[in-house]
Specification:
There is one protein chain. The chain is α/β, with parallel strands linked by helices. Helices cover 39% and strands 23% of the residues. The protein has a seven-stranded parallel sheet, with helices on both faces. β4, α6 and β5 form a beta-alpha-beta unit. The relative contact order is 0.10.
């Protein structure tokens, strides 16, 4: 059966659905299934490959990993993926070669970590994200400090008392953090208590804090209050249309919106 007139996100999800059932699908077969041109299929395959959601191979595309965690992480990365990529492009402009950074374990920060690996050198990065650490190590000029602790399955982050204590002894120039929800007049919130404590502790030891957050998280609370708005230097977000955010933020907090 040929499926016609699918939007891009629907095509990408359809391709992932197919290769999750079958290890490999050819380029020509995808053309017939999706009802699009070869050029469009090649672009879709390249995007999935670049996002590490699938592996581009000769003549088509195949499943990159059948591990359940990889699939879960890939699904998180697909949510608001366009916004996350645009936020990362802004954030990388705040980083210079040789900087000393902390990067958290959010999917938005992972997109930022990818650009750090590609576009900057000699970075000294501390992180509680296994995925970000592995990505950053692909650039051999980087030095990566992995925060120890108990691994959290949801996002492959290290949390718990050992992680909380370790970050108390760090000092970084810039922290790039995301959050579960964000109230502009108050600050950030998390749904996991230890994730919240790790971020609280690193915030105390950071010269500057940059919040990477897409607008879907605005004006919402979660159970654990984490970083006060007065401690945040800049909010980096997508090209939202809600001017209430600007009105609610303190004057010292810079807001940087991506342009689509």
């Amino acid at each position: 059966m040929i499926i016609k007139r699918l939007f891009k996100k629907e095509r990408l999800n359809k391709i992932l659905e197919i290769i999750n059932k079958r290890e490999f699908v050819s380029l020509r077969e995808l053309q017939k299934i999706l009802g699009v041109s070869e050029i469009t299929v090649r672009r879709d395959i390249k995007e999935l490959n670049d996002k590490a959601l699938a592996q581009k191979v000769y003549g088509g595309i195949k499943k990159i990993d059948s591990d359940p965690f990889e699939a879960q992480f890939a699904e998180r990365r697909m949510q608001h993926s366009k916004e996350k990529a645009l936020i990362a492009k802004i954030a990388i402009e705040l980083v210079n070669d040789g900087d000393n950074l902390f990067i958290d374990a959010s999917s938005t920060s992972f997109e930022f970590a990818k650009l750090c690996r590609e576009k900057r050198n000699d970075l000294h990065v501390a992180t509680n994200s296994i995925m970000a650490a592995l990505e950053l190590l692909k650039n051999p000029t980087n030095t990566v400090t992995m925060i120890g602790g108990t691994l959290r399955n949801e996002n492959a982050s290290s949390i718990g008392i050992f992680a909380e204590e370790m970050v108390k002894n760090l000092n970084v120039e810039k922290s790039f953090l995301s959050c579960r929800t964000f109230m502009p007049s108050i600050g950030t919130f998390e749904t996991n208590s230890s994730e919240s404590l790790v971020k609280k502790n690193i915030a105390k030891n950071s010269d500057k804090i940059y919040l990477l957050v897409d607008s879907s998280k605005f004006f919402k609370r979660a159970i654990f209050f984490t970083i006060a708005i007065d401690d945040i230097n800049a909010v980096i977000t997508d090209d939202f249309k809600n001017e209430e955010l600007v009105d609610k933020l303190p004057k010292h907090v810079q807001i940087v919106k991506s342009k689509t």
